[in-house]
Amino acid sequence: MSNDNTSVQETVEESDIKKKEEKTPEQLEEEAQFAKERAEKRKKKTRTILERIAAIVCLFLIVFFIVGLIVSAFTGSKYFVAFLFGAIVIPFAIYIFLWLKKISS
């Protein structure tokens, strides 16, 4: 009797496997759309992480140039003009870069 139950269970499992393998075109299209959306989300997430890292690096550069500008102003260092140039040009260059990125997107 247990032999009959086993064979019935095996045929039920085999039919379930066949049903899972046979997918309609609509199901295949849904799966493809889902995979595409998931890939876009992953790409967007990676891009936002890179943008955050770039923003942090830029902030450190700006702070470095401003602190260097203040220190060189008080000490009369020969690097005052270089720090002044960096404190003005770096934020301007970042702004231009972000503006061009928006235009290209």
Topology:
Blueprint (H helix, E strand, L loop, with lengths): L1 H20 L3 H51 L4 H25 L1
Kindly list the characteristics that best describe this protein:
105 residues; single chain; mainly alpha
Notes on the protein architecture:
This protein is mainly alpha-helical and 105 residues long. The chain has helices spanning 2-21, 25-75, 80-104. α2 packs antiparallel against α3.
Précis, in short:
The chain has 105 residues and is an all-alpha fold.
User: Structural class, please?
Assistant: mainly alpha
Shape: rod-shaped
Q: How much of the sequence is in beta strands?
A: under 5%
The number of distinct β-strands equals 0
Terminal Cα span: 69 Å
Unreliable sequence segments? none
The percent of residues in helical segments reads over 70%
The description of the largest β-sheet is: none
Mean pLDDT: 78
